[in-house]
Amino acid sequence: MCTYQTAKVALKGSGKGPAGWFPVSSATVYFDHPAHYSAEHSLNIDFLNLDGGALSRVAVELDPASARQLARTILETLEAAPQL
Amino acid sequence: MTDSLRAETVRLTGHGDEEIEAYVAQPLDEGRFGSVVVIHHMPGWDEGMKEITRKFAAHGYLAVCPNLYSREAPGASPDDAAAVVRALGGVPDDRLVGDVQGAARYLTSLASSNGRVATIGYCSGGRQSFLAACSLPLDAAVDCYGAFVVGTPPEGYTLKVGPIVHLAKDLSCPLLGLFGADDQYPSPQHVAELEEALQQAGKTYEFHSYDGAGHAFFATDRPSYRPEAAKDGWQRIWEFFDRYLRS
Fold first, then answer.
1. ipTM
2. Which terminus of chain B faces fewer neighbouring Cβ atoms within 10 Å, N or C?
3. Domains in chain B, CATH or no CATH each
């Protein structure tokens, strides 16, 4: 299937792409065809800065179980972090 | 089949008189040939799409695959360009039609053109091939598992794409549809709804759905590749184009 299932979230932070570090302004999260991971579908995240052009991108393509574990780990890490 | 062909990247005039990249392949044999506009899938203007473009030339057609992401990400790798376009909401329908028109014009202006033109598209390009065939005067069109010709994506999706089955009455040419029976987008129900719309509009069409195949069964570099479905699908394409694109 070609899901078109895509969500976009605004972010603050930095990412390191092929041209070096850049300010990340958004992430696109979608469950669709991967470009590289060997599966029919994967949970894909593109960390982007659309003002910086196509090279301002950090991409991951994850199998669904890995993506869920990553999401849980991010939340657990934030919960355990000192409150600043 | 011919072993003698030329393939290259060119620039052509697309929608809004804007210049876009395109990959062109053509047989070097003497004669006049039908033209095929290859509409790439959502992952972009990649090696697989260029390979398919060359395949059409090897089978005796002038073929062009316009880079639909030229404007947003000139010179970028296909996956980076696809990511940018996805984040921006996808390719607008009116721009797609203009780019296909420009690509068709490029081929039919060649001295070796016989003046006949078809479109073929895969995945999102399948929907766009149907859209082009409902918007432009064409001689044939092929929809390979295009999602959202029928059906509406849920609210809130970043990608702006809507159903276009209501355009069936405007279809300008015979339509070949190739689908996987295990696909969900488009599902067998979606395919049946499109078929019903074509019947009601009195259009010429030919649909084939393959058991044991899902989406992207033509894609040789993906786990979704289904050799038997792809072999039969290619045979259907050659017969269809032989009928409608030869002089």
1. 0.82
2. N
3. 5-244 (3.40.50.1820)
Q: Which of B73, B123, B216 sits opposite A54 (nearest CB)?
A: B73
The answer for B 214-233 residues in CB contact with A (under 8 A) is: 214-216, 222-224
In this prediction the pTM is 0.91
- Over residues B31-56, the pLDDT tens digits come to 999 999 999 999 999 999 999 999 99
Whether B150 and chain A come into contact, CB under 8 Å, resolves to: no
**Whole domain around residue A64: which residue ranges?**
5-80
CB B73 within 8 A of CB B84: yes
Task: Please count the CA atoms within 13 angstroms of the CA of B88 that sit on its side-chain side.
Answer: 18
- Asked if A46 and B83 come within 8 Å (Cβ–Cβ), the reply is yes
- pLDDT tens column, B154-187: 777 777 888 999 999 999 999 999 999 999 999 9
DSSP A17: E
Q: CB within 8 A of B27, min separation 6: which ones?
A: B2, B4, B5, B33, B57, B58, B60, B61, B62, B112
Number of domain units in chain A: 1
Could you say which of A5, A35, A39 has the minimum Cβ distance to residue B43? A35
Chain A contact for B82, CB < 8 A?
yes
